[in-house]
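ARCHIVE CARD
SHELF: 3
SLOT: left
DATA:
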Amino acid sequence: MKKKFISLGLALAMLLGVAGCNITTPATVGSIGGVEIPAGIYLLAQYNAYSTAASNADLATGETANDVSAVLKASVTGTIGDEEVTTDGADYISRLTQRAIEYYAAVETMFDELGATLEDAATSEAAENADSMWESNGDVYEANGISKDTLEAYLLNGQKAQACLEYMYGENGQQPVTEAEYEEFLKNDCRYIDSVYLPLMDTSTYTFASSEQAAAIDTLADDCLAYLKTNAPASMDSTSAYMIMYQAALEYVPQAMEILGSTDFDKSQSVYYCGSQLYTPSSLSSYDDGNGGNMLTDAVDAAGYGGWVKVNLGTAIVLVRKVNPLEQGTVSNFQTQYDLLSELKGEDFTNELYAEGAAMEHNLNESAMNTYKASNIKRSV
């Protein structure tokens, strides 16, 4: 699993197709807490803010996210920190941009104060990712005042944030997360789930099931559910139950594919339609039902440990049950496979960095920021 802070930095950089103008001076837009904010970093943050604003803007018919002037004038509703905001696009972009550079400064400051260092693998990853992005979009970045060094600096900032998290809460950190805390997190906030999937989409043609096909597969899922309840009872651990799940997949997945009209499904591929894994809060969030509930956790929690239930996820009907994660592996095992530290402490730590950045002394140069104002953003070259 990629680390959250690294993924955040990479996601930001990849969003930044183009921004700003070809002006190379001023080199910075001032400082926050003594950390100089390079113009390139400001442009990256600003374009990311623009992308968010554009996706939330109330645009008139015919206007698109590429219409910079329209986005700047449009009403935008979205979340900044934990506050729901409705304002015009220009103000929304300005607020998000400042928040991003405050975070950048807070990370740089904490990294230095902790005396943290980056491993060679972290710096190499940042350099390689910057090279890859530059190879793909270098002409676009360059045309908008964004250098490859800027991309690398932003990615390194993400690596530094992860290093700070480790220095604070890692095994040898100042406030290390205890074994008991990890165990509580695994049991209460994560779910270890056994599953067998019956597809509602022909993966060879990407055609969804018709209502009649979906009904037939739903009936098939009932049969599969009965098989699992009988042959993999609540008392059976995941390791022992795996062969039962595989046999269920081998029996019922090909039937589902046949109902969908698939003529070339290889029965041996059924193994990929069953499995067991730990779902962390970040992965569970993708199952939000849109009404304050969670399609996956609500179902398995209601059934209790070991209870098989049927859940329609839209693209598949899944037969699932939760088991006690601490009966499937040790904390150390899960730490090796999943980034539990970021999952447990990452969100609070990120919010702490945002707050620290906002509280730092700001010596930003309004004239310099106006040089790189959002109205100069370009969406193509």
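SLOT: right
DATA:
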Amino acid sequence: MRLWIKDPIAILAEGAERGIVVEDGVIVELVGKGREPMLPVQATFDASRHVVIPGLINTHHHFYQTLTRAHPQAINKELFPWLQALYPIWARNVTPETFRLGTRLALTELLMSGCTTASDHHYVYPAGLEAAMDIQADEAERLGMRMTITRGSMNLSQKDGGLPPDSVVQDQDEILADCERVLSKFHDRSKGSMLQVALSPCSPFSVTRELMRESAALAERFDCRLHTHLGETHDENSYCVEKFSCRPVDYLEDCGWLTDRVWLAHGIHFTDDEVKRLGHACVGVCHCPTSNMVLASGQCRTKELEAAGSPVGLGVDGSASNDNSNLMEGLRHALMINRLTYDAASVTHHDVLRWATEGSARCLGRDDIGAIRVGMMADLAFYTLDELRFSGAGDPLAALILCGAHAADRVMVGGTWQVTDGQPHGVDTARLRHEHGEAAKRFLESL
């Protein structure tokens, strides 16, 4: 069926003033000003109440952390003490059941904010959670979202000089065996795929150099992406100098990770030379503005990284350091902190929209999503401007960011409506809120 999405208020695409035509989940035509579709359509959707943008793409998250939002033992702390407060709580309470609810809630929140593709970095593996990636694949399929499941890992615990407790890490052989299993089962590199896999050792302070190198070799075998935290805080830089006698980017290169297969979370504390090296290698960086502000981690050098050649994407980061899963809200935060970093003219709403769509798609290694163009998958987010916050807005696209849009009215993934009138299909949000809230109570029982 050919569907004409007709006459939007505004659309983030050149030459599509009268909308777009979707067929078999793909954008097949842009309908310009004063024109009609070139071929007959079988259905029309009146988009005259909507601003239409590509579906947002979240490139860094920790879904399970929705269960410890605003946790009394972790608020008002920076990264290392924040992790030290939460690791024991996660170790005791993350089970397959709570993990499934945390995943479901995070994906639902993302979808309702206009996100059509998500990547989650899961690295906590207490006993019994060996099927974490299977749970996430199942939940993404239920919601009809695209996902890059990142098989995270930690094998350097407190007894080895690392940060995490012994009970949430795994040994290297166990990690690599499951990475290979997950890649063989879920990694789909075809156009329009709903599920892909990345390998994601957690960070320099929680994995060994050998695991980093073995993960890179496995990624080459399976043609998948690599992801890790890097350059998030000054403490991390100091740790690398103390433990490895080099800075994080040098460590990355030594492990065989300075390639265009890699995207990094945060990427804040890089020198000018390191920015150039990362850009030359086309290493992507996921900017996490909300988390960076909550934990006072610092300000990502987005403009320099992008100018050097690094794809820049956006992520909400974990819901215990955000503390929500709303990517559209993250765009506004990205605009504000980057204007504070640079100036008002240097960072516009077009920049943050690009980071959250095309930039994020590049971080995930995808060229079939992230833009409204012929041949791209029909992943779209529709926002109304009916609320009081938008009254008087002159530029509809700028209004989404400056006036604080936070919920999509409709969301389409691969030509299929997954959100209508603000509600995700097939999800009882009141029941989800109750079940998730009950599960989260056990994370407070130690208080």
